[in-house]
Amino acid sequence: MPEPGSTLPRRQLGRYLTEWRSRSGLTQQRAAALLEIGASSLQRLEKGQNSRIKSRDIKAACELYAVPDDLTDALVGLAKQANVKSWWHQYGDLIPKTFDVYVGLEAVATGLASYQPDLIPGLLQTKGYDRALAPDAWPTESPEQWDQRVQIKAQRQHIVLRRSQPVSFDVVIGEAALRRVVGSPAIMAAQLRHLADMGTRDNVTVRILPFAVGFPNGVSMPPFVILSFEGSHSGVEVEPPVVYLEGVVGDMYLENAEDVGFYNQRYEVLRASALDASASRSMLRHIAREHERDG
Questions:
Q1: pLDDT tens column, 192-219
Q2: pLDDT of residue 125
Q3: Whole-number Å distance between alpha carbons of 71 and 101
Q4: Contact 130, 150 (CB under 8 A)
Q5: Which of 60, 81, 156, 276 is at a distance of 20 to 30 A from 210, taking alpha carbons?
Q6: The whole model's pTM is what?
Q7: What start and end residues bound the annotated signal peptide (predicted)?
Q8: What pLDDT digit, counting tens, does each position of 99-152 carry?
Q9: pLDDT of residue 47
């Protein structure tokens, strides 16, 4: 179990080091010997339990495991922020833009609770909807790069669709996201029907927050995701939940129990104010028909 001071950057660093050591075919004992550190020290590092991390040790491990240079830079950046509890990840600062911290977290989460007031959540987007967003989201890129981004997101969606232990995904989506036209009315109709269909899966719950309920929390809440992780057999959390807040120039990761509790409470208010799953599917299909008529 991670020590009380264990942080998200430290745990992510440990995950990547474990993965690349395994890829290199080295045991912990052999890798520790080659790095000239104790096996217990490497074990703590891989579990995110080592609060004193030296950049030179990370560089040495990356060299031993043949980690690509860009990922090495990202892991060194994580090491420099190893003891930060509420973590502001500014794009291009310490962590390269090409290193997606959130996707790494999402891939190992067992549960996601997401509030999206204006946009369909990425894990539930159709390729048509995602592709229609790409030119405005990434204006300096080529059509080929936009298509590649769409394929990458489609691969991310596997965590929801896989047969073995799919992630539990509970989402509240604002009515504005259903009515704002992305691409074309036809794209929106297909997107909303896809949402309704996804909401019938055992691991996915989609609720719509209609305009009529106003602001359930008394304020306009930004989009956020609460990520939860697998607990031990005794019910004790091996890894604490994390709140993810996406920004235009950087992302915020909150681990403090009080902060996470605040967002859990706010999410429950939104969830209770939203339509139930069945009524939400009916609303999705109704608005899909409206888009079809407009098209």
A1: 999 999 999 999 999 999 999 999 999 9
A2: 98
A3: 11
A4: yes
A5: 156
A6: 0.77
A7: none
A8: 577 888 888 899 999 999 999 999 999 999 999 999 999 999 999 999 999 998
A9: 84
Mean pLDDT of the chain: 88
**Length of the chain, in residues:** 295
Beta strand spans in the chain (E): 87-90, 111-116, 168-174, 204-209, 224-228, 242-246, 250-254
Fold of the CATH domain 87-294: Endonuclease; Chain A (3.30.870)
What is the Cα–Cα distance from 101 to 95, expressed in whole angstroms? 9
Hey, where are the domains in the chain?
8-83, 87-294
Enumerate residues 6+ apart whose C-beta is below 8 A from 265: none
Instruction: Report the alpha-carbon distance of residue 156 to residue 22 in Å, rounded.
Output: 22
Give me the CATH code for the 8-83 domain, please.
Answer: 1.10.260.40
Phi, psi of 57 (to 5 degrees): -70, -40
